[in-house]
Design brief:
Layout lengths: L1 E5 L11 H15 L3 E7 L6 H4 L3 E10 L2 E12 L2 E7 L1 H4 L10 H15 L9 E5 L6 H9 L9 E6 L7 E2 L3 H4 L6 H4 L4 E2 L2 E3 H8 L2 E4 L2 H6 L3 H4 L3 H6 L4 E3 L26 H15 L9 E5 L8 H12 L4 E5 L4 H13 L4 E4 L4 H10 L2 E4 L9 H7 L3 E5 L2 H6 L13 E3 L4 H15 L2 H12 L6 H15 L2
Parallel strand pairs: 1-2, 1-6, 2-5, 6-7, 7-11, 11-12, 13-14, 13-16, 14-15, 16-17, 17-18
Antiparallel strand pairs: 3-4, 4-5, 8-10, 9-10
Helix pairs in contact: 1-20, 4-5, 12-15, 13-18
Length: about 475
């Protein structure tokens, strides 16, 4: 089985969010299951010198973007056992930031067309194109409109993964003729039209052979108005083709037994070494060096959807607990200033690092005792899975992938791997924090829960097999 995985970003070449981690880890897991999975992304980066030497230029050609003829450079490289193809066009891709430019509609129309045209120049013919998020949503539309007559394309199936329904790629209806070389009958048929515009996301949902989301709960949530972002009706209509598969975690990158960023490596039998990571971080951040003081952490984008308004509402009560709080991240100015204010108010208890710092993130996961993730909504979530892997007990709100990966602690049944609360309520969150801090005093019960958390199945293995089942299903239709 041949699968071409299409994304706008992929670790280690480019990253703004969890999509890049999936584009790196899922194809690698698929290859371990004997699927020839390859990745194609836009070349928004300069390769490190050690990788540049192995980059193989395959071809260059031109694609139609409406009335334009635009250059495409196609190259490949193998990284960590996975073949990667790069779409190179400096006009579209050599810019600051991957998204948010004035011509995103044109740029990603070009990208979708370039991906399809690149298949002609590869020594690889996909059985399935697995495309991701709104940036790739026009792939099945263009495939049906411009390529189905071609023998090399007529049997290709498509699977579309929604990582976050909130971001939809909606542009004016003129893109149909101006960028996609399509008639306005497609607009009037309703398959692409979205409240007066043309939606990449809606188009992907309508024209893909199967649709997936990044957790089982999120697949259910988006069929309701609150989470459905005005596409819930369409998703209910296609529910027979809609699957929820929880993302995994790349255990080569996130492994406390061999993580190069942490001071002391550890496993379930060496929790004393985990505490040494905590003592080191306390010293580095200027907090009280005390292994008996529970440390709660957040590594997050500072945004409303991440539950920062809940924290703001009860921050003084949180700081009244006998604990430390470490926050790493950047985001909305209001929440950056909020964290800086409370750090100045509670300098001995709160440390806010307003920056993006991957090594420090690893150190925080290894050092902290508690990981707070009170999201308003969370399609899957990576932070809580990393926390589990590192034995840092997560406190989450029961939504999306947080609900699917964190089982609340039950003292009577002696089960669970973290803590959770159901309603989007600041005091429910506070109660969960208080409960975790209280349990920390019972070191025997705490260590048992930590060990259980570290043994949680956060790998890609089972999820990769579920994707393979979907690929086989669409191929046999």
């Amino acid at each position: 089985m041949n699968v071409l995985f299409v994304a706008s970003e992929a670790v280690p070449f480019s990253k703004t969010g969890g999509l890049a981690d999936v584009a790196f880890a899922l194809p690698k897991a698929l290859r371990k299951e004997n699927v020839d999975a390859r990745v194609i992304i836009s070349k928004t980066f300069d390769l490190p010198e050690r990788l540049e030497k192995s980059e193989n230029h395959l071809s260059h050609f031109y694609v139609d973007v409406g009335w334009r003829k635009q250059y495409v450079g196609l190259s490949e490289i193998e990284y960590d056992g996975v073949p990667y193809y790069f779409i190179d066009n400096e006009y579209y891709f050599k810019r600051d930031g991957l998204y948010g430019h004035y011509d995103d509609g044109e740029k990603f129309s070009y990208f979708c067309r370039s991906v399809l045209e690149s298949i002609r120049y590869m020594d690889f013919k996909p059985d399935v194109i697995h495309f991701n998020d709104w940036h790739t949503g026009m792939i099945p539309v263009l495939l049906n409109e411009h390529y189905r007559h071609d023998e090399d394309y007529k049997d290709i199936k498509t699977v579309y993964t929604i990582h976050n329904l909130k971001y939809q790629g909606v542009f004016g209806p003129d893109i149909l003729s101006d960028l996609l070389s399509m008639g306005h009958d497609h607009y009037h048929s309703g398959g692409m039209e979205f409240h007066g515009g043309v939606s990449f996301m809606k188009s992907g949902i309508n024209f893909a052979d199967a649709i997936t989301t990044v957790s089982e709960t999120y697949a259910k949530e988006i069929q309701y108005p609150f989470f459905g972002e005005r596409l819930d009706g369409l998703l209910r209509h296609r529910d027979h083709d809609l699957y929820g598969i929880t993302n995994g975690l790349d255990h080569d990158i996130y492994d406390p037994r061999k993580d190069p960023h942490i001071i002391k490596k550890y496993d379930t039998r060496g929790l004393k070494k985990k505490r040494e990571n905590k003592l080191h971080l306390q010293k580095e951040l200027g907090l009280e060096v005390n292994e008996n003081k529970p440390m709660m952490a957040m590594v997050t984008r500072l945004a409303n959807m991440k539950g920062l308004d809940l924290i703001e509402h009860v921050m003084d009560e949180i700081m009244g607990l006998d604990m430390q709080f470490v926050v790493l991240g950047t985001g909305e100015p209001h929440y950056e200033k909020m964290m800086q204010y409370y750090q100045s108010k509670y300098p001995d208890k709160l440390k806010a690092e307003i920056q993006f710092n991957a090594p420090l993130a690893h150190q925080i996961y290894a050092a902290a005792d508690i990981f707070l993730m009170p999201s308003l909504f969370e399609p899957c979530g990576l932070g809580q899975q990393i926390a589990l892997r590192y034995g840092t007990l997560p406190i989450v709100r029961e939504t999306g992938g947080l609900k699917d990966t964190v089982t609340p602690y039950n003292a009577f049944e002696d089960e669970g791997n973290g803590f959770s609360f159901a309603n989007y309520n600041a005091h429910e969150m506070l109660h969960s924090i208080e409960r975790a801090v209280d349990l920390y005093r019972d070191r025997r019960a705490w260590n048992k829960l930590v060990q259980r958390a570290m043994k949680s199945d956060t790998s890609w293995k089972n999820s990769a097999k579920k994707y393979i089942d979907i690929y086989e299903n669409v191929m046999n239709r």
